[in-house]
Backbone:
């Protein structure tokens, strides 16, 4: 079953995450299909930009704990979004959690609606937002990252804009995206690629410097007894033993 659908209109290829059974979680299948779709977009001269969106009420629920992707494949997916020589625009009308925020943060432009919400839930499970920090921390307000990484609090679109996760919060996402997509259609392919390289340079440098270290940290955390208990408690819908 296909979990990433493609459509195309006047230079904009829309990639739609459609895995309702797990709330568009980052499964091996979704990461693989999305990576392949992005590679096709990179090679297609008819694609001026990519619009990344979703079905249902969740943009991405984070890692699929029952069918997780290869960690290296997820890191490669985030880097592919950052390094794609064409802008990637996120259209968000639902919830974004944990690893899904890494996917969102890798996008060049992100516009979300009033029903969207955000949370870094890793610390609640005995984990940390390790590899997703590579696209996120260069772009986020440090104080906001310090708060939400540690507390796991849920916050809305307006706060996500202030924190640096979103470009814009809008009551009507498609109306807000109209001038954005029109602008991308008017820009030259070379101009877009060169301009994107300027604004993503720091993020790419972060991947170069930290991929090995943060991937190792993430693997160690997932293998720990505390994280295994946290994940088990989450799947069993109960509180882990460290909750006071």
Residues:
């Amino acid at each position: 079953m296909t979990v990433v659908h493609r459509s195309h209109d006047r230079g904009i290829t829309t990639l739609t995450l459609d895995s309702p059974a797990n709330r568009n979680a980052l499964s091996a299948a979704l990461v693989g299909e999305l990576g392949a779709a992005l590679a096709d977009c990179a090679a297609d001269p008819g694609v001026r930009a990519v619009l990344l969106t979703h079905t249902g009420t969740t943009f991405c629920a984070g890692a699929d704990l029952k069918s997780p992707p290869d960690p290296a494949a997820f890191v490669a997916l985030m880097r592919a979004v950052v390094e794609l020589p064409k802008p990637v625009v996120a259209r968000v009308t639902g919830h974004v959690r944990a690893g899904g925020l890494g996917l969102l943060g890798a996008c060049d432009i992100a516009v979300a609606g009033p029903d969207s919400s955000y949370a870094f839930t890793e610390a609640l499970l005995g984990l940390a937002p390790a590899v997703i920090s590579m696209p996120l921390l260069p772009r986020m307000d440090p104080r906001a990252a310090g708060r939400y990484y540690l507390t796991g609090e849920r916050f809305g679109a307006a706060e996500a804009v202030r924190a640096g996760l979103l470009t814009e919060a809008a009551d009507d996402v498609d109306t807000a995206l109209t001038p954005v997509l029109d602008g991308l259609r008017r820009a030259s392919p070379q101009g877009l690629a060169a301009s994107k390289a300027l604004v993503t340079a720091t993020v790419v440098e972060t991947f170069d410097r930290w991929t090995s270290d943060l991937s190792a940290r993430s693997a160690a955390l997932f293998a720990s007894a505390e994280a295994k208990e946290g994940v088990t408690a989450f799947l069993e819908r109960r509180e882990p033993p460290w909750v006071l």
